Amino acid sequence: MTAVLFDRRLWLGIGISAGCLLLLVRSVNGTDVLHALGGVNGWYLIPAVAITFLGYFFRAIRWRYLLAPLKKSSLANLYSATLIGYMANNLLPARLGEFVRAYALADRERLESSSVFATLVLDRLADGFTVLLLLLVTVFTLHLPAGHQSVQEGLFIGGYATLALYVTVIIFLVLLKKNTLKTLRFLERLLRPFPARLSSKVIPLIGSFLAGVRISPVGAERWGIVISSLVIWGLAILPIDLACRAFGLALPLPVSAFILVLLVFAVMIPASPGFVGTYHAACVYGLLAFGVSREEALSIAIVIHGINFFPVIIAGLFSLWKANLSLGALGKRAGK
User: Fold this and answer.
1) What's phi and psi for 239, nearest 5 deg?
2) Closest CA to 50 of 322, 307, 317, 316
3) How far, CA to CA in Å, does 91 sit from each of 58, 70, 95, 135, 320?
4) pLDDT exceeds cutoff 80 at 301
5) pLDDT tens-place string over residues 1-48
6) CA diameter of the chain
7) Between 93 and which of 1, 10, 55, 327 could a Cys-Cys bridge form, CB atoms 3.0 to 4.6 Å apart?
8) How far apart are CA 71 and CA 318, in angstroms?
9) Which UniProt keywords apply (predicted)?
């Protein structure tokens, strides 16, 4: 963990988060923000938190389908590892929670951690294409108010860039499967300008990773991945809508979908643990486009972030304790 603390990516993320927070707070009235937070209707937040945990449960279900070619894993262990991973993402830098999640399940299910991590790469690809579908639906069903067309154009560009990235990853995975030796040799040539120790680590890692990249041949399990992905992201829209309603804003549901897409792009930006600052900025500027005051938008952003931050940390720490695992030990393995 000491090495992680001296990682330049960590301090870059903290700097970006601090810059976003400074940009947000310098132009708001703090008293109005506190007044808006004081008037929130907490009854809307209870189902918002419940739906958030339901989303994690469907993530565990999808993960079970992805792991099916390796082992029929316990849904309880999958849910526990999912909560631990998302808790770690909120507390550790550089998205180490993904590695923590893999190690937590590998320990419980006695699987190779590289094979488990390979399923999480497929998990992220499933997320990526579902979000792209959500982006497509949002762009064609939601028309931003006059003066904000540049934001819509930015979403198009971001969508195309993300699509290109995911297609590149899929092509790379397909080539790895069909022409493993040629692809690895090509990758080795690409890595020649870098230190030899990098190549000596990356190539064996990809080899062991490749062993875990398997898609179930069972049609029902493949459809399970598709349907659970749609449910996961459909549920993710609702807490945003409920948070807005907690402040007395009854915005159309596509607006919440639009905010969700912005949040997805925001968490791709390097930031401090928990995506503080970048997450809030995406939410605030999204709501500003629909005439919400800056103070109220910041208040809503704080609540939406809180819904996704504090409950999963508590649940993740409880799952960690129940599994007799140590975050320090898992974080140390993830940071290697």
Assistant:
1) -60, -30
2) 307
3) 23, 30, 9, 28, 14
4) yes
5) 444 454 666 778 889 999 999 989 888 888 999 999 999 999 999 999
6) 63
7) 10
8) 25
9) Cell membrane, Membrane, Transmembrane, Transmembrane helix
User: What amino acid is encoded at 172 in this protein?
Assistant: F
pTM of the predicted model as reported, rounded to 2 decimal places: 0.85
The string of DSSP codes covering 122-181 is: HHHHHHHHHHHHHHHHHHHH--PPTT-HHHHHHHHHHHHHHHHHHHHHHHHHHHHHHSHH
Domain-wise residue ranges, the chain: 2-334
Check if the beta carbon of residue 254 is closer than 8 Å to that of residue 142.
yes
Answer yes or no: are the C-beta atoms of 23 and 282 closer than 8 Å: no
Report the length, in residues, of the chain: 336
Report the alpha-carbon distance of residue 75 to residue 92 in Å, rounded: 25
Q: What is the pLDDT of residues 188-213, one digit of tens each?
A: 787 777 776 666 666 766 766 666 66
Q: Is the Cβ–Cβ distance between 219 and 117 less than 8 Å? A: no
